Amino acid sequence: MNGLRAGLIGTAAIMAVVLPSAALADKGTLRVASQSDIRSTNPGVDRSGFTDSVHLNIVEGLVGYKDDLSVGPVLAEAVSVSDDQKVYTFTLRPGVKFHNGETLTAAHVKESWDRYMDEATKWRCRSRFNGEDGVNVVSVETPDERTVIYTIDRPSPLFLKDMARFDCGSTGIVHRDSVKPDGSWDRPIGTGPFVFVEWQPGQKIVLDRFADYVPAEGPMDGFTGRKTVSVDRVVINVVPDAASAKAAMRAGEVDLLNISTSDVEEMREAGFNVVIQPTPAWGSFLISRHDEFMANRTLRQAMAAALDVQELAALMGYDSHNASPIPPMSIYYTETQKKTYGFDPERARALLAEAGYNGEPIKLVTSRRSPTIFNQAVVAQSMWQAVGLNIEIEVLDWGAQLDLYRSGEYQIQSFGFSARLDPALSWDMFSGEQTRKVWDDPEALEKIRLLMNETDSEKRAVLSDSLHEMFLDQVPAIGLYSQPQTTALSERVSGFKTWPGGRTRFWNIALDG
Amino acid sequence: MWSYALKRLLMTIPTLFLVSVIVFLLIRLIPGDPAEIMLNDLDSDIALEEMRSELGLDRPVPVQFVIWLGNMLSGDLGVSINTGEPVLSAIASRFGVTATITALAVILAVILAVPAGIIAAWRQDTPLDYSIVFVSILFLSLPSFWLGLMMIFLFAITLGWLPTIGFVSVSEDFTGGIRYLVMPVATLALVEMAVIARMVRSQTLEVLRLDYVTHARAKGLSEAVVLTRHVFKNAFGPALTVIGLILGGLLGGASVTETVFSLPGIGRLLVDAIYARDYPVLQGCLLFIAFLYVIVNLVVDLLYMVFDPRVRL
């Protein structure tokens, strides 16, 4: 009996130590859950969308994207462009410190740039600056400690935008000590508001507040403006299962979680603040130009007319549809870009008859990479069936679907393009002669080429609008919507703002309690 | 016995070679390659070709295999395409997590299942037997992910006792580590307990009908002695095979449980590698798992002798 009592007391003591306070948080720690892990700590080199998001809290480039998808200064205080649009002069902000305490100078910028342009670095955007797939940076000069002058071979509306690109790591300036003496990557030593602490692959990423961070002036605007850091630490836990991540949030272990739009109501009912932000990521159905059957333009037009895209968008939890690849927040989203196919089942049936369609099966490829990619395929299938189209869905894993996307060996794909932040890039992402691209109309390609090189905004808008008119008529793909980013926040979090760029910013966030 | 063990260990070499060939070829038959997945919908075809060349995917498959085999024989399993981590250290660190939860789960399952199975058989067709069989069937029927989520709902969300995400090794922080282990270990143990209990019950029923048990009872031995000394030893042998298979399976990755509880174990490493077409990690993991199976089966075979002296290896 004494033994039993001792056992019970012992168990109670262990429970008292072990069990309570499961969800207690460090006061200054922002706890984030992510279904993805980062790929590396090397900005712009080994990356993914989420990897960029984490890196861009650690490193900063000379310029960065703003809320309206234009580009503004970050480490630069000012950027001036010569009359011939070939010389860019960046004046650095004074007193900016690296995480190792050194003050940023023009020499650091040049050193970092030289590392990026070295083939051995394997920077993802090297070809955008060496003339292979964009401008050629002829020289980078540093006449004094705070001035860096880039000279390019020809005027380009994309030079600064490419520099600021997320997948280029915003051409983030990293200190030479980020690299080991043998030339291999060590850890990012940048100038950003957060210091990299540790990465345990498959488990967590830890960032600490950079106490000596020197913020820029001006209101928070994308990656530009003032960055005030109010949290001491950010811990990003990798939680691959969406249900487990939501459960962790309900258990009070997570403060910030990106969720699917289908989970919005559930999380709001559970008492969380949910923020929805449209982004330039674009949902669409791609129609392969390599498939003989789908080469029938009238058939494609019938498919577009049969889709109630507004209803489809509503079912996906989105506010509005967008047939154009130009996102609504862009200055190039004109009245013309708002035009869509027009839902008209009668017209769809007539077009099907005109196309000579006799119920032949059409294969629609999708995957469960995201709920949207799969769900939009299922909903569209029923809409197409309503006008007599025989659509068969084939569900693959994302790797297999991407393989078909690259080869063009499919009929229709349910697809989502990641964000492109310039109209030329938005049109180019699915247009061209490469097998993966669905639109190879010579006139359209010429317009895109002009758009790539035109620096006048008004002329660019005209080109982009005319592309949209052609796109609606030829239906190389069916545009659906600009996909929003949906974030659930615990009641501890205040001040969090999403932005069209979609990359999560850990600055200007406060934690209560 | 030792020569048998040595022979079995030597036999692992051709087995592992065969496994490595099959794994290498099968992985490359799956559509999609790591370069495509890394680049996603971005970048040019030039970038894709550069990436393939960087990863060595542009070489003929036999050449890739010879290079990989050569590196593997010198102890280099390569580097993860997905994270840049050396495969060997990734497997070692993840296996520690998997081994901890698996060992605890199997021990717990055996401790609960063996007495339950023996008692159920001993009290066949009584309410006690029916209850044990019912509970076993119940846990066998429950998918482990559902059981895990229900545990999270009860112990983390409703009661707030246990954490749902993250992991701390018990060697670093014993109390903290235990908190992270409770739910995954319980999830695995309950499901596996059901399997073992049913196996032990059916074996015990067979043994209980044998003449020597009747003889032992006729000698006036107590039921406890009959069950522990005479029945248990003979009934446990076949259950040991099942336990060995369970152990091998779980050590090879309890991927569902690891995913639900966000544990950085080898199962999740493997699943992530499949989705990312991370060839080096996939090859390394599968080879390691095959090796584990061989070792676990060898240990089980050797343990047979302990429980059944008639077995000679």
Question: Helices and strands in order, then pairings?
Answer:
The complex is a heterodimer of chains A (about 525) and B (about 325).
Chain A: H1 2-18, E1 29-34, H2 49-55, E2 63-65, E3 71-73, E4 76-81, E5 87-92, H3 106-117, E6 137-144, E7 147-152, H4 159-164, E8 194-200, E9 204-209, E10 233-238, H5 242-250, E11 256-259, H6 264-269, E12 273-287, H7 297-306, H8 309-315, H9 345-355, E13 361-367, H10 371-386, E14 390-396, H11 398-407, E15 412-417, H12 423-428, H13 442-453, H14 457-474, E16 477-489, E17 493-494, E18 510-511
Helix pairs in contact in A: 7-9, 13-14
Chain B: H1 2-29, H2 34-39, H3 45-55, H4 61-73, H5 87-122, H6 127-141, H7 144-158, H8 174-208, H9 211-218, H10 223-251, H11 255-260, H12 266-276, H13 279-307
Helix pairs in contact in B: 1-13, 5-6, 5-8, 5-10, 5-13, 6-8, 7-8, 8-10, 9-10, 10-13, 12-13
Give me some keywords for this one.
heterodimer; A: 513 residues; alpha+beta; 10-stranded mixed β-sheet; 4-stranded antiparallel β-sheet; 18 strands; globular; B: 313 residues; mainly alpha
